[in-house]
Write a structure and sequence with these properties.
single chain; 621 residues; alpha+beta; Arc Repressor Mutant, subunit A; Serine Threonine Protein Phosphatase 5, Tetratricopeptide repeat; flat
Length: 621
């Protein structure tokens, strides 16, 4: 018998328990448990009020491990210490002599952090050096991390995180898993990925049908994971999976719709067609799935050019495949593929829009904007909107350009409103765009709402997790911020700045040892140095803070001017903070866009220089 691991949070006494993250939270206090300790706690919680024998604990918690009762005693003792329990009147785990242990606290399954856990507010940072506790809470995000949020403008597939459960998912909900390339030479991965993405886009046009975005669905690419587990993590009731075999002009697509609750195949079909029929196959699959789920597909014309030339379409799919890898070399290869598609089909609006997006990625990677790069981006976007005035992707890309590169907030909002007018039901692009605008404007509660809607459909995307964590920290919802950042760290351990983000969340909560431990594990040197400068300052270790800040300034003055300004503001050094803010403005550092909502800069708010700096940025109200 295995210990049950609930998909959602459980309230045990005063503690909110999240089995998916192995953390327990109470007020401003958070602990990450070892997996075995979490299994021990859940085993007791599943039989709350009943005596659980040592033999049962050994069987369920220590399955496959040869240990004795002393190991159980030691583990229970450590768990009780974490919970704040004490003899002779325990409030959580009671010892029943010669029989075992009993959980005596109240257990409520399905608890939520927002409903049950009080959140500590982050006080304004004092401008003068003070005690470590006073400097415990602030906001810092590594330069690379904030740039990633801006980069999210350029990524069609931004989505969001948090746990879901197939048992509670809506019947009208589905995730399209990446189709498997079964071609003989295994060289059609771009095509199988593209087909999956097109089906996601088709199905997302169904009113009332919840469709998980590409980024989260593709987290399971190449993984042989149980369908119930996948559906539970994505929060859906159905999965669509399939395979593609492409040889010359011959195409075989096999697909099946699966009910996650019991693994039953509700529908399956194999299509043997010519590659010229790929659009018909997409339409037929989408229609069959929609009918099986009692949903209605909205009729939307394909972007101009798709209908007329399959070769150009294939080139765009291949370009998308390389662009999604985000390295400069891959994006440059995507540019060439999009250009080839346009050479074949000059009227292909989506190819022009994708080309503009790739140009923009390269301009951001190059740093300071240039007139030549701007001209290429705008030229491609003008072609796209001329060919198809209702192409939402083109307006999304242009809004990102206006926000991240030109800092033209009125134009960015106008394009976001245009997107909404064309496709008011768009669930992938609108929440992301509106959330970013709200955060830059200083409307953090509104930003959280938009990002939460985004996460419902993209629960595993790192950029979405990062964005909502930023907004939650700015809102002083610190426990929730920590939960999302731990999720980011758990799902994407190689994501740049993930450890530093977790460390900062612990810092805001005043858990300095945990903050220091996380920051020291951050592989990105600039984020690690900035984090150390902050944490050491909060701990009263000024000399070590000075050393970290000095190395940050010497090594990363150009790239991380905004981060350096954050550290100086947090340390109460206003003159230096304003000097580095001006440097970040002159170098067009995109991090400066979040100056309104950055708690680390709160010590500057009463200074007239701060109002002058805001006026220079002309941020939206």
């Amino acid at each position: 018998m295995q210990t049950e691991n609930p998909g959602g949070a459980v309230q045990i006494g005063e503690w909110l328990v999240d089995p998916t993250l192995d953390i327990i939270s109470r007020g401003t206090e958070t602990h990450k448990l070892e997996p075995r300790t979490m299994r021990l706690l859940l085993c007791l919680a599943n039989s709350a009020g009943e005596v659980v024998s040592v033999d049962r604990l050994l069987t369920e918690v220590w399955s496959g491990v040869v240990v004795g009762s002393a190991s159980v005693y030691q583990a229970v003792s450590q768990l009780r210490k974490l919970l704040g329990d004490a003899d002779p009147n325990p409030t959580y785990i009671a010892t029943v002599p010669r029989k075992g242990y009993r959980l005596v606290a109240e257990v409520v399954k399905g608890g939520t952090a927002s409903a049950r856990v009080p959140v500590a507010e982050a006080p304004p940072v004092s401008p003068a050096p003070a005690t470590a506790r006073r400097h415990a809470r602030g906001l810092i995000v590594g330069g690379a991390a904030l740039v990633a949020i801006i980069s999210g403008w350029f990524i069609w597939t931004r989505i969001q995180p948090f746990n879901g459960s197939a048992r509670s998912a809506e019947d009208k909900s589905i995730a399209v898993l990446p189709f498997v390339d079964m071609s003989e030479n295994k060289d059609q991965e771009y095509f199988s990925d593209g087909l999956s993405e097109e089906l996601i886009n088709h199905l997302s046009r169904s009113p009332g049908l919840k469709v998980i975005a590409r980024t989260s669905s593709f987290q399971f690419k190449g993984k042989n994971e149980d369908v119930r587990s996948i559906a539970g993590r994505l929060g859906v009731a159905h999965l669509l999976e399939g395979s593609v075999r492409k040889a010359g002009q011959e195409l075989r697509v096999t697909t099946q719709l699966i009910r996650a609750s019991d693994g039953v195949h509700l529908w399956s079909q194999t299509y043997d067609r010519n590659t010229a029929d790929v659009f018909k196959i997409q339409d037929e699959i989408s229609d069959r799935v929609a009918k099986a789920l009692n949903a209605t597909l909205a009729i939307v014309d394909r972007p101009i050019g798709q209908k007329s030339d399959v070769e150009a379409y294939n080139l765009v799919l291949e370009g998308n495949y390389y662009k999604a890898r985000r390295t400069k070399g891959n994006v440059e290869k995507a540019v060439q593929l999009y250009k080839q598609a346009i050479d074949i089909s000059p009227g292909y609006a989506l190819a022009w829009a994708r080309l503009a997006s790739a140009y923009m990625d390269l301009e951001v990677a190059n740093g300071t904007p240039s007139a030549a790069d701007d001209a290429k981006i705008l030229g491609a976007l003008d072609q796209a909107t001329h060919l198809d005035p209702n192409l939402v992707w083109a307006y999304y890309t242009r809004a990102g350009y206006e926000m991240a590169i030109k800092w033209d907030w009125a134009a960015a909002r106008a394009d976001a409103e245009r997107m909404h007018a064309i496709d008011p039901g768009n669930t992938y692009l609108l929440p992301s765009a509106l959330g970013d605008l709200a955060l830059v404007s200083g409307h953090v509660a509104e930003a959280v709402e938009h990002y939460q809607r985004e996460i419902e459909l993209n629960p595993l995307d790192p950029y979405s997790l990062q964005a909502i964590g930023l907004a939650l920290c700015a809102s002083n919802r610190l426990q929730e911020c920590l939960r999302y950042r731990l999720k980011l760290q758990q799902l994407h351990p190689d994501f740049g700045g993930a450890n530093g983000l977790v460390g900062m969340a612990y810092l805001y909560l005043g858990q300095f040892p945990d903050a220091l431990d996380a920051v020291q594990k951050e592989p990105e040197k600039d984020s690690r140095l900035a984090g150390l400068a902050l944490v050491y300052n909060a701990m009263g270790r000024r000399a070590e803070s000075d050393a970290a800040l000095r190395e940050l300034e010497e090594s990363f003055a150009l790239a991380d001017a905004y981060q350096i300004a954050q550290v100086h503001a947090y340390r109460g050094e206003a003159d230096a903070a304003f000097d580095w803010l001006q440097r970040s403005y002159r170098t067009h550092n995109s991090n400066v866009l979040y100056v309104k909502t950055d708690p680390l800069l709160r010590s500057l708010h009463g200074d007239g220089r701060f109002d002058t700096f805001l006026a220079k940025l002309s941020l939206p109200e």
